[in-house]
Amino acid sequence: MLSLDMTSNFRTWMLAGGVATGLLSTSSLSRVSAHGEPFGYVRGAQSEQKGEWEITQWSTARMGKESGRYLGMDFATELEYGITDRFQAALYLTSNYHLLKDSTGSSETFDDRNRFGLSGTSLELKYQLADPYKQWAGFSFYFEPGYSTIDRVSGERNQEVELELRLIAQKNFFDHRLIAVVNYILEPEFEHETGHDWETSLSMEWSAGLSWKLNDQWRIGAETRLVTEFEDADLNHAEHLTFYAGPTLHYSRGDFFATLTVLPQLRGWPNKSGVAGLHLDDSEKLQIRLKLGTEF
Residue 51 region, left (φ>0) first, then alpha (ψ -120 to 50), else beta? Predict the structure, then answer.
């Protein structure tokens, strides 16, 4: 049975979906397509063309713990520029909102919180080794250093430095109607809380996506994420493992694009019983991401 809290979160998601649908249906830009990637979490191998700019607003809702009320919202404004036809850079400004009430995870209890705050920034550097629209497959290397001052899960103030390394492979089929992408992500993290020493962890992720072109404006597909984190960056000591999978919907017209991805957690470890179920300390039951962007 759904709790009142989950019902409230579902209504929040439905409202966000309605707003997104309204934006999509009222767009009247003239060009047929835009650069925007058709995935919410997976990154494609394509690169911004030299001299082109793109701005994207990312909004991610993370909902549901073991009990109580939990809503975490992550916001990022991205400004991207094509330095060459193969090399692009982007700057992100990030913020977070947390609403927690009597919230508990698989083994952790969270402090009540209702707060919005600016959290940090990151820099994206992406180099394309091969273009999936011109060669048999596409490959890119992606590096993103970042700094934040708000813990993503608990909402507590801290200092965190992240160094995301991502390898991207993309293959297009049927005259580019079907796009298949795989990402491998390695992310060292260095975290410091007041009164404590710096802590080191290592996050590793495999993610994949399929996207099918319905017509000139719409694509539909699916994404999966398998995420694990290692304490003290020791590969022999995995702290948790989570698996997400769900649908994604992409719209583009002219210079405007929008992507909506819904990812429920399907399996996770450890949970209360110590066996595979859902892991709800560092992860949530449901993640929803909406991206709205335009080229100029």
Answer: left
* Total domains present in the chain: 1
pLDDT digits (tens, 9 = 90+) for 260-281: 999 999 999 887 655 558 999 9
pLDDT at 2 over 50: no
Alpha helices in the chain, H assignment, sequence order: 4-26
Q: Are 148 and 119 in contact (CB under 8 A)?
A: yes
Domain carrying residue 97: 4-295
The one-character DSSP state at 49 is P
Predicted TM-score (pTM) of the model is 0.86
pLDDT in tens, 204-249: 999 999 999 999 999 999 999 999 999 888 888 888 999 999 999 9
CB 181 within 8 A of CB 44: yes
DSSP state of 120: E
> What are the beta bridge partners of residue 19?
none
Report d(CA 5, CA 241) in Å as an integer: 25
d(CA 267, CA 261): 18
Q: Is 51 helix (H, G, I), strand (E, B) or coil?
A: coil
With bands split at pLDDT 50, 70 and 90, how would you rate the model's confidence at 283? Answer: very high
Residues 6+ apart with CB under 8 A from 175: none
Gap between the Cα atoms of 86 and 44, Å rounded: 13
Which segments within the chain are labelled E, that is strand? Answer: 53-63, 67-82, 87-104, 113-130, 138-150, 157-173, 178-192, 199-213, 218-231, 238-253, 256-269, 286-295
DSSP 231-243: ETT-TT-EEEEEE
Q: What is the CATH number of the domain that holds 253?
A: 2.40.160.40
